[in-house]
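ok so for the tutorial part 2 we go from a plain amino acid sequence to predicted structure tokens. step 1 is just haveing the sequence, like this:
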Amino acid sequence: MQHAIELDALRTEVGAAAGPMANAVSACVHCGFCLPACPTYIELGEEMDSPRGRIVLMKEVLEGGLSLEEALGHIDPCLGCMSCVTACPSGVEYGELLMPFRELAEGGRNRSWLDRFWRGLMLDTLASPSRLRRMLRAQQVLAPRIHRATIEVLTRSGVEVVVPSEESCCGSLAFHAGDASRARAAAGSLLRVLGPAGLLPDVDAVLTNAAGCGSGLREYGLLFAGRPEEEKARALAAKVRDVSTFLCALDAPAPPPLAQPLRVVYHDACHLAHAQRERTAPRRLLAQVRGVTLIEPRDWQICCGSAGIYNLEEPELAARLGRRKAETLLEGEPDVIATGNIGCLTQIESHLRRLGRAVPVRHTMEILASAHGASYPAPAR
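step 2 — the prediction. this is what the tokens look like for a chain of 381 residues:
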């Protein structure tokens, strides 16, 4: 697609991200392959709520032909799921346009002070286990059992696990929501803990068990593009692996068989399947467990509607997508639903409850850990 974006002017606002933004616009040939892959287009049926429609809108804003306010009504509902990237035959790096545009939009939109306050509080609370623990009081903070299961599986596979002593958010939640300044502040703290002067030189890989975090960490080069921290950020990003990718590459012996057979439907987290382009590893790991029958769901590429804080900012659309996903996963009559992201897990659990179905949703690592003898709830029948 041809454009008249003034790169020099754009660089003053988004720095080194200007070039990738323009490249993403240029690469789009308006073919429409992204339309059936886009959750919001499927639900809303409007061209401007599709990836190619949003690219046109962002192009028009960057060229000065359209006001930001006119475009945001269609761009804000984008989940940032990157399903369009998987579907695109032209190699459009949609995220390299969307993420800097959202940063640019945050500086130009008219949010009330109350809206800014609550949005900041929401991002800070969800990114901090200690704050979230105080808010939830008696409840556990978003399934810490997943970390225990992950460490169990890694150590059983002969991996020495080093857990950083300092608690630090990676900033992905804020980055994907367009609050890049808050994201850089969080990421800067993590760089001090894990970067070239921290643990990074002594480890073979930096592992994550949350697809959104892994995606954000691997995008640190974009987050810090043109900034003094860029080299350190890229060095860290180069070592980031999803735990399933890392374990699959180890080619470790298969775990023992499960105590009872399980029908497992695997749900692809968008930030693992699309943003990190990893679909094979979790399936291979699950298929290696004797007793597991792996079921492939219909419409695997469609987002469940979780998407960071999307549930809170676009609750109606998120609920429609969540119900659609829960119903689709149930078609395989699973004993367990597996996924690689805490946000997806929470969203799917919520909609299963609304449908009155008590099918457990577990992280891939929990199912692997159960084969090693870790405690695991019996499947619902």
